[in-house]
Amino acid sequence: MRLTATYYLDVISSWCFWAEPTWAELRARYSDRVEFQWKIALLDKTGLPTSREQEEWFYRRSGTIMRSPFMLSSEWFQPGWPEYLAPNCVAEAAKDFGITDDRVRLALAHAGLREGKKFGEWKVAAEIGARAANIDVEKLLGSARSAAVEARVRAATAAFHSLQVTQRPTFVFDTEIGDRAVFSGVVRLKPLVATIESMLDDAAAYAAHKAHFGDPPAR
After folding, report:
1. Across all residues in the chain, what is the average pLDDT?
2. Nearest CA among 191, 172, 190 for reference residue 182
3. CB burial of residue 138 (10 Å; 0-12, 13-18, 19+)
4. CB 130 within 8 A of CB 180
5. How many C-beta neighbours within 10 Å does residue 52 have?
6. Whole-model pTM over 0.70
7. Which DSSP helix (H) or strand (E) runs through 39?
8. How far apart are CA 218 and CA 117, in angstroms?
9. What is the spatial distance between Cα 62 and Cα 58, in angstroms, rounded to a whole number?
10. What CA–CA distance (Å, rounded) separates 190 from 182?
11. Right CATH number for 3-213 from 3.40.30.10, 3.90.580.10, 3.30.300.20, 1.20.1530.20?
């Protein structure tokens, strides 16, 4: 039995940026036993700072908590914007070109949060994504701005809200036996590894029981 790991993120989220090494390590350890996928969970005005000064305060807090030797850049920030569709839709649209791994959204996050590129603008985001994916920028931009891609992003965001959590990143682990674990705002590796190991062990036990006893008797 396999386990599915779903990572809900917003490309602009600093905490998602800090969580990326954990996500990469989980994939490296468990790629043969766990199905990994990521989905967009758009930040809205309730989760966005109102000024660059406030954004930088949050960056100092998260940076010191994570013991980072560098501070994230706030140059990308656009005061008053209710959400940042462009970088998230570009990352999502890359899936339509067969890019289902992390490279496009990681390139976008690095360009914005480390280099200060204004990736909230469609053209800028598309250029960053196209370079990372080695695909035509106009084709990627067209897909990113399509109604279909935005619908997928908003559906994934709605699924995130249905979990009744508020933090990005959120990690959801599901097994075929119906077990589910949800970690909202957790970026450290250790609790996630412990949970995956426990869930895989339980799933293996169920598989062993079925091999010996089959399906439950009919009523």
Report:
1. 96
2. 172
3. exposed
4. no
5. 14
6. yes
7. strand 34-40
8. 61
9. 6
10. 15
11. 3.40.30.10
Number of CB atoms found within 10 A of residue 41's CB: 27
**Residue pair 173/161 in contact by the 8 Å Cβ criterion:** no
Residue 121: burial class (beta carbons within 10 Å; 0-12, 13-18, 19+): middle
119 to each of 84, 110, 126, 139, how far by Cα in Å? 9, 10, 8, 17
Residue 112: which of 91, 95, 92, 93 has the closest Cα? 91
H or E, element range at 181:
strand 180-184
* Residues 111, 129: Cα–Cα separation, whole Å: 10
**Hey, where are the domains in the chain?**
3-213
196 and 3 Cβ atoms separated by less than 8 Å = yes
> What is the predicted pLDDT for the residue at 164?
97
Calculate mean pLDDT across residues 165-190. 96
Tokens standing for residue 48 = 């966005």
Strand order in the sheet with 3-9: 34-40, 3-9, 170-175, 180-184
pLDDT at residue number 219? 79
